[in-house]
Amino acid sequence: GGSESIGEQLDYEITAIEAGAGVVKAAEKAVSADGYDLSEWEVATSSSGAMTQELENAYKDEEPIIVTGWSPHWKFSKYELEYLEDPEKVFGAEEQIKTMARQGLEEDMPNAYTILDQFAWTTEDMEAVMLERQEGTEIEEAAKNWVSDNEEEVAKWTEGAEEVDGKSIELVYVNWDSEIASTNVIKEVLTQQGFEVEITALDNAGQWEAVSSGQADAMVGAWLPGTHGDLYEEHKESLADLGANLEGAKIGLVVPSYMDISSIEDLKS
Ligand code: PBE
User: pTM for the full model?
Assistant: First the structure.
């Protein structure tokens, strides 16, 4: 504490998640000369689970920490946190979370396509599922609970879709808390419609490749235009873009409110 700079206190380390995540690529850009030129700083990659564990440890001792954060996320309900201002807009502005399907899904599985296409919910909805899981409920159970508590909303997703009898569908996702929630909720809805749903966790590049190559049927965690913009550009010709399932998502560097910095520029001193 005391007269040490924030960099000295943190050993010039930003606590990040997996290297393939868009928020980590953005954090790397932020410290580089293309961003804020924070040449002493390092983006220390780990996993989403390890990052939230470090956040919890720091928070309970009121120690400083900077993490790669995103919304929707349960951490904003559990802790008092703030996004660092990003005047250079390295982390972009508001994001949409979009649904991407393989080409041909509409023809092959029109009923699944209809549901995936109509799937849309809010930050509040997603955070409710994430929080229930965070508090100890198995995700399958939390997804079931949310679906049965939100029949009207779910009826809009399934409108016009006929029930099927055990047709197989594979969804891919990444083990991020937000995508664990969305993927399990849409899995539950498709299951209730009669589908045999397999969900497979991959890394970020892997989920985009799986859908664009047709190995998997769809994904509901495409963060655009910024977070996954590079992967979208690479694969967009061979994908069906089903539009946003959630508006107002965000990524950035996140700190506990007790820390006395407000902007990424404050990391310079
Ligand atoms: N996330 C959660 C992802 C998108 C969803 C912010 C960690 C990413 O950075 O790629």
Answer: 0.96
Distance 125 CA to ligand 1 centre (A): 18
* Same domain assignment for residues 15 and 47: yes
Same domain? 114 vs 72 = no
Confidence check on the interface: ipTM exceeds 0.90, yes or no: yes
Can you say whether residue 149 is alpha, beta or left, with left for phi > 0 and alpha for psi between -120 and 50 degrees? alpha
pLDDT tens series, the chain, 269 aa: 457 899 999 999 999 999 999 999 999 999 999 999 999 999 999 999 999 999 999 999 999 999 999 999 999 999 999 999 999 999 999 999 999 999 999 999 999 999 999 999 999 999 999 999 999 999 999 999 999 999 999 999 999 999 999 999 999 999 999 999 999 999 999 999 999 999 999 999 999 999 999 999 999 999 999 999 999 999 999 999 999 999 999 999 999 999 999 999 999 96
One domain, residues 134 and 41: no
Give the separation between CA 125 and CA 142, rounded to whole angstroms: 12
Q: Are 24 and 153 part of one and the same domain?
A: no
**C-alpha–C-alpha distance, residues 261 and 247, integer Å:** 28
Same domain, 85 and 118: no
110 and 240 in a single domain? The answer is yes
Are both 126 and 182 inside the same structural domain?
yes
Specify the CATH number for the domain of residue 13.
3.40.190.100
Partners of 96 in beta bridges: 224, 247
Whether the CB of 173 sits within 6 Å of ligand 1: no
**How many C-beta atoms surround the C-beta of residue 232 within 10 A?**
20
- Say if ligand 1 is within 6 A of residue 21 CB: yes
CA of 24 to the centre of ligand 1 (A): 8
